[in-house]
């Protein structure tokens, strides 16, 4: 099967998933720019990137499964890797910023539990 033989339902689904996933990633980037403090900014790109990435990878799975006529699991591995590493990076960045702010005595630092 070539790209020209792709069924209309698959093409529409791939385009819809890719556009919605890209829009969510863009929304996360806008949140990164618009929010004021580090602690507010750190969440928007993480959430936008995770959900946006999942939808774009789902579009890729549909595309390659339809074109190749067999299930293509590569994208699932990419999704698992990104889903595991993105929140871990968020936690490490937030803890490092919190430690820095507490040692420097910043005013907008969240208080201990």
Layout of secondary structure:
Elements: H1 8-34, H2 38-41, H3 43-68, H4 74-104
Helix pairs in contact: 1-3, 3-4
Describe this structure in words.
The chain is mainly alpha-helical and 113 residues long. It has one domain. Helices cover 78% and strands 0% of the residues. Helix 1 packs antiparallel against helix 3 and helix 3 runs antiparallel to helix 4. The N and C termini lie far apart (59 Å).
List keywords for this structure.
PhaG_MnhG_YufB; 4 helices; transmembrane; mainly alpha; membrane; 113 residues; single chain; Potassium:proton antiporter
Alpha carbon gap, first and last residue = 59 Å
Instruction: Compute the number of structural domains.
Output: 1
SS summary, helix count? 4
- Structure summary, number of beta strands: 0
How much of the polypeptide forms β-strand, as a percent range? under 5%
GO molecular function: sodium:proton antiporter activity
InterPro entries: PhaG_MnhG_YufB
Protein name: Potassium:proton antiporter
Keywords: Membrane, Transmembrane, Transmembrane helix
Short description:
The protein has helices at residues 8-34, 38-41, 43-68, 74-104. The protein has 113 residues and is an all-alpha fold. The longest helix is centred in the last third of the chain and has 31 residues, at 74-104.
């Amino acid at each position: 099967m070539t790209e020209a033989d792709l069924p209309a339902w698959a093409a529409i689904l791939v385009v819809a998933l890719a556009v919605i996933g890209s829009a969510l990633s863009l929304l996360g980037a806008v949140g990164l720019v618009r929010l004021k403090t580090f602690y507010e900014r750190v969440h928007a790109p993480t959430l936008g990137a995770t959900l946006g990435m999942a939808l774009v990878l789902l579009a890729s799975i549909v595309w390659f499964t339809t074109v190749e006529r067999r299930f293509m699991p590569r994208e699932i591995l990419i999704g698992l890797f990104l889903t595991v590493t993105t929140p871990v990076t968020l936690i490490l960045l937030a803890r490092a910023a919190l430690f820095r702010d507490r040692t420097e005595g910043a005013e907008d630092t969240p208080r201990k539990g």
